[in-house]
Each structure stands twice: as structure tokens, then as C-alpha cells.
Amino acid sequence: MQQEYTARAERIMQRINELAAISEDADGVTRTFGTPAFVEGRDLVQGWLEAAGIHHRIDGIGNLRARLESPNPDAKTFVLASHIDTVVNAGKFDGPLGVLMGLDLLENLLAQKAELPFHIELIAFSDEEGVRFHTTYLGSKVVTGAFDPALLGRCDAAGISLDQALVAMGGDASQLSLDAIPAAEWLGYFEMHIEQGPVLWERNVPVALVTAIAGQQRVELTFRGMAGHAGTVPMNMRQDALCAAAEFVLTAEQFAQVHGRGLVATVGKLAIGHAASNVIPGEVTCSLDLRSPDEQQLAQAYDYLRGHAEAVAGHRNVDLDWNLVQKTAPVTCDAGLNTLLTQAIAASGYETIALVSGAGHDAVPVSFVAPATMMFIRCYKGISHNPLENVELADLAAAVAVADQFIALLRTQNPTR
Ligand code: HGY
Ligand code: MN
Ligand code: MN
Hints:
This protein is about 35% helix and about 20% strand. It is α+β, with helices and mostly antiparallel strands. It has two domains: about 1-215 and about 330-415, Zn peptidases (Aminopeptidase); about 215-330, Alpha-Beta Plaits, CATH 3.30.70. The strands form three sheets. Strands 1, 2, 3, 4, 5, 6, 14, 15 and 16 form a nine-stranded mixed beta sheet that branches. Strands 7, 9, 10, 12 and 13 form a five-stranded antiparallel beta sheet that branches. A hairpin with a 5-residue loop joins strand 1 and strand 2 (about 65-70). Helix 1 crosses helix 11 and helix 7 (about 240-260) packs antiparallel against helix 8. About 45% of the residues are buried. (2S)-amino(hydroxy)ethanoic acid binds near residues 128, 129 and 359. One manganese (II) ion (MN) binds near residues 128 and 193.
């Protein structure tokens, strides 16, 4: 059996490497929603589905969706999924690993000529990271019926709207409501994903089950002061937008450090308008990414930092725009599916580790309509959103074995009926 799992892991790894060679950047892996590189990468995965003879389609938001039907037309649908869009200068595994492990599971079920008590749908979500339009889960929100059509007018840095980007890649905004799986038809959801944290690496255990996923709030801030001559404006007469932003950034860091217990705050983007070394910055835009598994702690941190940003703008005599662009509550994963996953992990001979995810995943919007859970796979030092992201073949083979067990148990026990 081990040989079989190693061979399957090798093929998954080979596909991950082939997909990683497709990027909108000459160096590093970048495939953001709707770009030609994104479409080329999706075409590659589509080719593997065609070669396997698996029925598939591309939906209105650009998700790639493959399906194995149960002989029972009234059966519910169990979804295996993750995302094929990436952050900028990404690793190879964040997203594609779950999609290509899911493809392997479908190919294996076909090879076994397995009769399914439920339909299985594999989905490669088109936008989990939210890099291009700054709002995440576009693909999974369409599939769960939670997509907000008002987002179609949101523009990217080049001024292209989401609706225009959809049309450019052959999508169709008028179909989006038809692309949802009705809540009554969901049997459950299982996402396989790298841990993106250090626990499994440190404990040297290949997989973990996920009990909860942290809530997150993403904000865009703009500080507007007064551009001026760096050589002539006295220090006590400046309205320096960058110094205001800098004061805010450091307070966000200190607040999260002091209030720990799972709260994290990150400013990942900062842009100075009309930047020049001899000009006092007049306008600065920055991001704020706040996360916590505790909804109350997240709300308190949000309110405190918003108040602090307003206070900084006040004493520095600059204006502030504070724009909440993304808010998702913390979610818990399904106990019934996690019982099965625990059995699958034990049956494969591994210790069961249960983790809370600090990273967001497509399982978040799904968990509002269906029983959802995730399996984490051990990754190098927990590094992610970084080209150093890596998964060892032995850990991938172990994860394939556990995933096989999980699907086998699901076919017999069906915990969420
Ligand atoms: O940001 C996240 O949590 C995920 O990578 N989208
Ligand atoms: Mn991811
Ligand atoms: Mn990610």
C-alpha cells in the first residue's frame, strides 16, 4: 500500500510543479484571479480532468468544477475543494495542493469503479486570496450562494472592474446565482491544505485536523495630509501622511503583541502617493489585516485600532478614510466529519493533532451552508505565502493515505446524513 501512496504522491507533486511553472511574474509564482496566467493554470488542471474522463465545467465566476455522479439521482453532493489562485510571489502548494489531492482521489475512485452513495464535486476555486479585488472567497461565495453582486463594480489597481475581468475570462455574472449548490443538496465539504504554521513541522506529524478557522477583518486606510517641500516646511508645520501611517502601523503591531491569545495584526501593503525623496508625503494608503479565533477579541481590536487611527489623524492634522473591505466571523468545523477524519488518521497510524487555523480558507463561507472540515498537511517550517513553501513527499504520501481512508469511511458511515 505504501508504494501506491508514494506513487500517487509523486504524481501530485509533479502536477504541482507543472502548475507552479505558470505565472504572471518571471520570477516566483503569481496567478491572481482572472489573469491570463490564472486561465492558463486552470486550463492545465482542466486538461488533467479531460485526460481522466471526468465530467467538468467552468462556472460563471471562473471556478473549475468536476463531478462524479452517484447512481442515486437524489443523492446529496460532497465537495472536495481548494483554490488555484495565489498571492503575489507565492509558494507552490497554498491552494493547488488541495485541488490536486482532490483530483487524485477522484481518479482513484474511478480506477476502483467505486459506486458512490453521494455525488462528489471537486472545485478549484477561482479567487480565495482576494489579491486583485481585495475581497476574498469570490469563488466559494458563488458556490454557497453568498456572493454580493455589488462587488461586480469593484475595480482592481488598473481600474478594471470585477465584471469586466469576468467577461474577459469567459465568465458570466448573470449566471452566478445559478452556480450555487442549494444548501439542501450539500452533504459536506472537505478541504486539504498546507498548515501554513509550524506545529506539524515541529511535532513531525504529517497531518492534522482543523477544529476552527479564525475570523478576519481587512481594512483599507488612507491618510491625507499636505504634500510639501522637504527642505522648506518646518517640522512643526507639517501634515505628513507617512508619519501618521507609520505611527498607526507600529501601534497595530504593539496592540496585537500585548493582547496576544490568537490576535494577529498585519499591515501588508503601504503606498505613498506621488512619492519623491524631497517631498513630504501628502497621501498614504495602507492595509490592515486583523485575525482572531475569538469574535469578541476581534471586534475589540478593530474598534481600538480604528479609534487610534482617528486620534493619530487628529493630532497630526491629517484626514483619514477608513474602509472595511472584508469581514468574516470565526467558524468551527463539523464535529461529525472530524470524528471520521480522526478515525482515518488513526487507521493510517498517525497521532491526531487538532489545530485552529489562523489562515482563512474557502471552508469559511462553506461552513455557513454545510458541514465543513479541513485536513492540514505538514509544510517546511510552516512557511507559506513565500517561495520557500514546501511539502515533503513522505508527508504528501501520508496525507493521501489518510484522505483515502476518510473517503472510504464517508462512503460507509456518511456522518452528516
Ligand atoms: O489570507 C489568508 O488567510 C488566506 O491565505 N487567504
Ligand atoms: Mn490557501
Ligand atoms: Mn493563502
